[in-house]
């Protein structure tokens, strides 16, 4: 499956146990050291795992994928037992030898995963990872306040939407959708094409009301903006609060991202890590997780237990025909990345 990145959030996490820090040496210890964004594993799930197994959890947070990779390199794939991060950085960790292959004999519930979310570019043979947070950024708008038809990314450039848009403040995503309107890849590296995309992007600035990475849904729900382009959980939040809002599956094609779980190469509590993976892959447990994190659920065994308000949310329940032609944002060259960032800096300054 060729599945945009942008799953997860940062901040302080309430600790699920009284133990602090990532420590411990052997699998005999009832300890599990988790490293990811704050709140990505719901506290009630962590507590129920501890109650069932007696394994105490130390939960450490990172703010960015790059911070995670740097830390993992520093500890040489040790210290942590479970890491959850975005697909492109997971691939980098695998390529650097920082990820241990899964022992699927210890994870019988791995079979609950939907095959359509497996076999991806970062783990083509499904040897290292468990898909967790699956998402696609989407257009959401208020039909009571928008008089133009919106079918795709190109419609965001309509002059009728002047000073109306809230967009995620993210270079790869917004330059990505600009490239998609040009028939190009989200991962375009040709400098001439990127300069053309820059000119196209600058034409969008007058339509942008605000750029907001963390809470773009608030701008839409509070009426400051009438059209938004935002990450899956943010779009789902919009529809949960106001079901009259509409979601658009852009006709130019969807970007997809998968945040995946892995065990570092020198994890101190490998057996406990596998026990945790097997626990969260239970259908009923997964059905408790996804209505809280509001991402697409890759666990097929969960669907008989998921509440209707989750399965009917159109930011989550994406039609099969719209999931056939999707694309990951992947790692690009340093030169191309620098150009993306330079273009984005100019755009942000132009928006003001």
Automatic annotation (TrEMBL):
It comes from the Bacteria. Residues 187-214 form a coiled coil. It is found in: Periplasm. One of its GO terms (molecular function) is polyamine binding. It holds the Pfam family SBP_bac_8. Residues 1-25 are annotated as: Disordered. Residues 11-21 have a biased composition (Polar residues). This is Spermidine/putrescine ABC transporter substrate-binding protein. It comes from Bianquea renquensis.
């Amino acid at each position: 499956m060729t599945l945009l990145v942008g799953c997860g959030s940062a901040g302080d996490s309430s600790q699920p146990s009284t133990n602090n820090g990532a420590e411990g040496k052997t699998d005999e210890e009832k300890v599990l050291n988790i490293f990811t964004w704050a709140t990505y594993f719901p506290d009630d799930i962590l507590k129920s795992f501890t109650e069932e197994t007696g394994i105490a959890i130390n939960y450490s947070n990172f703010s960015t994928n790059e911070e995670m990779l740097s830390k993992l390199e520093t500890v040489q794939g040790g210290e942590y037992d479970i890491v959850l991060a975005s697909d492109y950085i997971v691939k980098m960790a695998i390529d650097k030898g920082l990820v241990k292959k899964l022992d699927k004999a210890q994870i019988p519930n791995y079979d609950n995963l939907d095959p359509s979310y497996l076999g991806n570019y970062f783990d083509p043979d499904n040897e290292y990872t468990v898909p967790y947070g699956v998402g696609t950024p989407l257009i959401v708008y208020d039909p009571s306040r928008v008089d133009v038809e919106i079918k795709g990314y190109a419609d965001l450039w309509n002059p009728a939407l002047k000073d109306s848009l809230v967009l995620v403040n993210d270079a790869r995503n917004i330059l990505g959708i600009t490239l998609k309107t040009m028939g190009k890849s989200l991962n375009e590296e040709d400098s001439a094409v990127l300069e053309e995309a820059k000119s196209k992007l600058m034409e969008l600035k007058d339509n942008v009301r605000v750029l907001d990475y963390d809470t773009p849904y608030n701008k839409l729900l509070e009426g400051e903006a009438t059209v938004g382009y935002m990450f899956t959980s943010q779009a789902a939040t919009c529809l949960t609060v106001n079901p009259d809002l509409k979601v658009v599956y852009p006709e130019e094609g969807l970007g997809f991202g998968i945040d995946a779980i892995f065990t570092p190469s020198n994890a101190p509590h490998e057996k406990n890590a596998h026990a945790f993976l097997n626990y969260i892959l239970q259908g009923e447990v997964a059905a408790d997780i996804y209505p809280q994190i509001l991402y697409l659920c890759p666990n097929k065994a969960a669907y008989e237990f998921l509440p209707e308000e989750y399965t009917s949310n159109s930011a989550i329940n994406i039609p099969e025909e719209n999931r056939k032609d999707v694309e990951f944002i992947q790692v690009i060259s340093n030169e191309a990345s620098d150009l993306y960032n330079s273009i984005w800096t100019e755009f942000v300054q132009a928006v003001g």
